[in-house]
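Q&A log
Question type: sequence-to-structure
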Amino acid sequence: MKETKKCRLRADRVFLAMGIIVGTLFGADGLRRSLVRQQPNNITIKGEFRNSEAGTEASTGNSLSYSTTDQFTTAFDGLKNLGYSERELYMDDVSTGILAVYTEDRPARETDQGIMVDLADEKNEYYSLVDKHVYLNRDAADALNSMMEDYANTTALADFIVYGTTDTYTGPDSYCPKSFSESKAGYCVDLALNAYGSVLTYDGNDNEGWIVDNCWKYGFVVRCPEGKKARTYSEYCPWHLRYVGEINSAIMKQKEMCLEEYVDFLKQYSFDDPYTFAFNGNGYQVYSATGEGEKLVTRVPISGSYELSGDNKDSFIITIHKN
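Response status: OK
Response body:
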């Protein structure tokens, strides 16, 4: 009897000790998690630092947060850490891409077009066309549909007319009185207004001003914005939009740059020292590759996706998407 009691007491002590150990481990783990949550994110900065994110307004239709910032987390420390390969780029292609700056001296050509679609087949019910067949780059067409749907949901209006894209009428009584050499590439949209059966020039005012204020969220920019005539050589043209992609339009919006300024801005960044940017919670890096002769060799990451565009002069711009 005495031996049995002694064994029972020892077993009780073992279970008690195990309980104390398990409780201590859970408590320590909880404390560790609490401390981790309180630690600030380790942030590296490239470009102009801003203490707060610029532009947190969300569009009505798709409820995305369009926050933009130059702040960039160390989760994406640099392109070289991703691994890279060399890629040959031919200067014959430098006029092709969403960031190409077309001028009267270096106009766009039909060969600069990407995949084109007929808006008569692709458009939604939130805008109309001036003609039966109006052609636009596929990505730009998708963005246009999203933008016009959100505009209609926000303003209860569906009064925009796509007056032209690759070939806009600019003769007598035109509602878009200026032609642009860049339109041939297929990334431009010229807008007018349908007012009770009458067509009006779009001046960017009133409820319709929503497009000027929000087009950047969909990858469009007002190609000739106010105050940029010295660079664009054109007065303010709110009716002439250019598709440049969401990442580029977000940076241009934040820095208040026209396309000419933006392309020049990127020339200072290279594969070894890219411009870093955060948009909608995702990280991106952008850099230029400049060369002479028939071709140049640059480096691109093996992992992660990237986009390539010529500037229609002497450089290619590479945009890296960090997944």
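Response note: Helices lie at 2-38, 119-122, 138-155, 210-214, 229-232, 246-255, 259-266.
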